[in-house]
Amino acid sequence: MPFVHVSTNVARSSINVAAALRGLSKCVSTALARPEEVLMVKLDLDSDMMMDAVTTPCAMVQIRGIGHIDAEWNPNTVRQTTDTVGKLLGINSERIFINLDSIEGGNWGYKGESLSPRTATMPYCTVSSNARAADIDANDALQKVSQAVSKALGKPETYVMVQLNLDTPMLFQGTTKPCAMILIRSIGKIDATTNAATAATLTDAVSRALNVPVHNKMPFVHVSSNVARAKVDVDAALCAISESVSTALDRPEAYVMVKLELDNDMMIDRLSTPCAMVHIRSIGKIDSQRNPKTVEQVTATVSKVLGVEATRIFVNLDDIDAGNWGHNGNTVA
Q: Mind telling me which residue stretches traverse the membrane in this protein (predicted)?
């Protein structure tokens, strides 16, 4: 079951969203030799994004799949997807990043080609926060985060792409006080030697740019859905999901952060009826013995609070190494 997530700063008003979703679904289905019935696509337009320190159109494509993501399949997948995204969204191929999980050198795409660890340099950073967009200078924040990523990872800004998601419904430690989640994907420079310094640099930059307290651990839960925000009691949904994950993973809610994205352009099986993607990241408590119960419990909760059929909900659980998780300006390990 592949999940395709395309984020871009292209204006929604300039795109035929339904046609773009169908085009992306068909493209990835063909590239990965997977039926569209098990393929979910999410398209984020009007995103605050920057690449090479400029805000001209760019895009980040993330493809998660079980199988058919390897050195043999990736070059063709990257070429097809880059070409399709470029045509559908009107973006130059040189400003399109593609990430195919798992994170390895040969699983990154740039300029329509699959790269090796020795030639790859481009980090991608996503910052999600419930900070009010009206209170933030988005362009200034993007530049500060871009500079921080470049400095922390020793990569030129020419290859740094940053996405900033503000006004995002989020809950941390059971409250909706300002909080933020930083996700960095990079080929190299992500290791026990450099992570602590990277966490400190980025935490400081984001805290200053968004006015989010530093001292505000995992797990992190990200729920994306095409359900209309107007139909959901957001605070109640956040609390229910937080409680569900806390129970499933046996973690106190003080360490659970939840992000809820509604009104997304999404489809599964080429249909835009309600669906949802749940991504859970945690240090431990993610294993073959516990996962079935976690998936069952979280699926039931999301289905109830969003009104989405369980058959149209994907759940992805990632066990994160403690050295790759930062909190309060330092890594957990």
A: none
Distance between CA atoms of 271 and 274, rounded to whole angstroms?
A: 9
Structural domain contains residue 116: no
**Pair (245, 227) in one structural domain:** yes
- Taking the C-alpha atoms of residue 332 and residue 104, their distance in angstroms, rounded to an integer, is 23
Domain check: are 41 and 139 in the same one?
Answer: no
In this structure, are 197 and 226 located in the same domain? no
- Alpha-carbon dihedral angle through residues 166, 206, 250, 309, given to the nearest 10 degrees: 20
Joined tokens for residue 77: 């997948």
- Residues 118, 183, 295, 284, CA torsion sign: positive
Question: Which residues of the chain, if any, have pLDDT below 50?
Answer: 103-108, 114, 117-120, 216
Mean pLDDT of the residues in the chain: 89
In the numeric block, which tokens belong to residue 306? 């969003």
Tally of domains within the chain: 3
Residue 204's pLDDT is: 92
E strand or H helix that includes residue 32: helix 17-32
Q: Say whether both 160 and 243 belong to one domain.
A: no
Given the residues 123, 169, 219, 274, the one annotated as active site: 123
Q: In this structure, is residue 301 part of a structural domain?
A: yes
In the residue annotation, 123 being an active-site residue is answered as yes
Q: What is d(CA 229, CA 173) in angstroms, rounded to the nearest whole number? A: 23
- Per cent of the chain over pLDDT 90 is 69
What is the CATH classification number for the domain harbouring 261?
A: 3.30.429.10
Distance CA 279, CA 70 (A): 22
Predicted local distance difference test score (pLDDT) of residue 43: 97
Evaluate whether 299 touches 310 at the Cβ level (below 8 Å).
yes
Its domain, for residue 195, covers: 134-165+181-210
